[in-house]
Amino acid sequence: MASGGGEVKLFGMWASPAVRRVEWALKMKGIEYEYIEEDLSNKSASLLAYNPINKQVPVLLHNGKPIAESLVIIEYIDEVWKHNPILPEDPYERTKARFWSTYSEGKCRDAVGKGYFTEGEEKENAIKYLEETVRVLDEELKGKKFFGGENLGFSDLVLGWMAFWLPVAEEVAFFEVLDSKKFPWFASWTDNFLEVPVIKENLPPRDKTVEFFENYRRQRLGASKCIKTHA
Amino acid sequence: MMLSLAPPSNPSRSLATNPRTKAPFQIAKTHPISGLLLPIRSMHRELKLSSSITSEKRLPTAQAVSERVEGGTRMTRGGEDVKLLGRWASPLVMRTRTALNLKGVDYEFLEEVFGVKSELLLESNPVYKKIPVLIHEGKPVCESMIIVQYIDDVWAATPPAILPADPYDRALHRFWAHYVDDKWFPSVFASSRAQTEEARAEAVEQVFAGLKLLEEAFQKCSKGKGFFGGDTIGYLDIALGCSLGWLKATEKMTGIKFLDEAKTPLLAQWAERFCANDAVRGLMPETDKLVEFAKMLQAKFKTAAPAK
């Protein structure tokens, strides 16, 4: 049911959370699209032509016009295909949805990045900081099933990586922040989120995802630094 | 994001006129009972600033630091309580003020003082503890471009529209605004603050590369008109234009002419148009004051422990 009409293509990479969140949005709206898998070590001429600025996935192509940046793409999708709205109608609620989305892309992902690719004190600080972001999100989720309320909303799609990719990061980079006793609301949000059919049916295979990020971490840090040295 | 010493020291600026109505800004409030002229929020004025730049030029104690900014004769939703927490040097705060001016919205500007975060700021933005914060009918909105979109949504019935009507054009404005914040503006700062020649050269290259991309973006978005938003200032004009003050300051500090008519003619002309616009005039900080401020900050951070 692509009521906005036209041809939709998505350039992506299977392990990328930014790509998946665009797919969740497309599927929530029942939009048909052609998915094109990119090898990021050998980017296609099309990707480079459609996104010469940062040369990254995801890129959505709608009737031949490219849009990059996952948050920009999701807002575009929501504005073109108006059924099953992702962003709330109320202007103030919209600010909250956008606020938590920028929080995700700034604070939370920065911290995870450092958790993956730094060591020693820098890593410890990053993990402390990451735990603090989970605490803040836990606080925000008090009394709610999803950030969007009863149903998935913009913040859920954007923060969704924390439900799947954060546990992967914990396993790959040997740290722990997700504690269902300390952060019960966040834990139940994770469970609720992963049970939603559109999400459940559109996640990468966990073992392959772990392997992918292990390799990536090894490349960045060097193999010797990727061995677990503590229980 | 930006730290500020104090509101611009030149009293004539504080007593400047509203670009829209030409009426002088009110800078103090009369206490309803005592009739005394009082600062609206005394905590917004820290008078023990030690910097010589501020101490010689700070406003007298009794004078308020907040301004009631009149939206003028434009149609506004009457009776609404709109406050903005900010600082004079901040380009992010300027974005929100530009948006409010475009829509002709009355608001109370509450100037935060350098080195001191007011109670109101900490309460209304507990996550980031940063300005700008818009407080509309008691509800806080944070993050400059989120505030700009909120202003556009709430005062949608008042032209001009800040975001374009077409979803694809909106996506372009959002994409490039994100690029300005994520890549371009940081490279402007890095070009004057880089610790090594190599880092500086890289940052300078990025600034020029970014301007080239933005020149092309201007061509695409403006469709032959004067602004990224077309006939009137739009979302991307605000995102990029409010950084022009710091761009000029950086040009002065580095001796590099970044915005060059020979290299990016459309942007150079657009910049002049933007700065001259009614909604912007009076908001752009003076280049020399920003340079002074930047030097003070650099000296301070050299002697302090590394920030987180």
Structure description:
- Chain A: This is glutathione transferase.
- Chain A: One of its GO terms (cellular component) is cytosol.
- Chain A: It comes from Phoenix dactylifera (Date palm).
- Chain A: InterPro entries: Glutathione-S-Trfase_C-like, Glutathione-S-Trfase_C_sf, Glutathione_S-Trfase, Glutathione_S-Trfase_N, GST_C, GST_C_Tau, Omega/Tau-like, Thioredoxin-like_sf.
- Chain A: One of its GO terms (biological process) is glutathione metabolic process.
- Chain B: One of its GO terms (cellular component) is cytoplasm.
- The complex is a heterodimer of chains A (231) and B (308).
- With 231 residues, chain A is α+β, with helices and mostly antiparallel strands.
- Chain A has two domains: 8-80, 3-Layer(aba) Sandwich (Glutaredoxin), CATH 3.40.30; 91-200, Up-down Bundle (Glutathione S-transferase Yfyf (Class Pi), Chain A, domain 2).
- Chain A is 55% helix and 7% strand.
- Chain A contains ten helices and four strands, in the order βαβαββαααααααα.
- Chain A has helices spanning 17-28, 45-50, 70-80, 91-117, 120-140, 154-159, 161-173, 184-195, 197-200, 206-221; strands at 8-12, 34-37, 59-62, 65-68.
- Chain A has a four-stranded mixed beta sheet, covered by helices on one side.
- In chain A, helix 1 (17-28) links the parallel strand 1 (8-12) and strand 2 (34-37).
- The termini of chain A are far apart.
- Chain B has 308 residues and is an alpha+beta fold.
- Chain B folds into two domains: 1-159, 3-Layer(aba) Sandwich (Glutaredoxin), CATH 3.40.30.10; 167-299, Up-down Bundle (Glutathione S-transferase Yfyf (Class Pi), Chain A, domain 2), CATH 1.20.1050.
- Chain B has eleven helices and seven strands.
- In chain B, the strands form two sheets. In chain B, strands 3-5-4-6-7 form a five-stranded mixed beta sheet, covered by helices on one side.
- The longest helix of chain B is centred in the middle third of the chain and has 27 residues, at 167-193.
- Chain B starts with 10 loop residues before the first helix and ends in a 5-residue tail after the last helix.
- Chain A binds chain B through residues 53-54, 62, 65, 67-69, 71-73, 75-76, 79-80, 91-92, 94-95, 98-99, 102-103, 125, 136, and chain B through 127, 136, 139, 141-143, 146-147, 149-150, 153-154, 167-168, 170-171, 174-175, 178-179, 183, 213, 308.
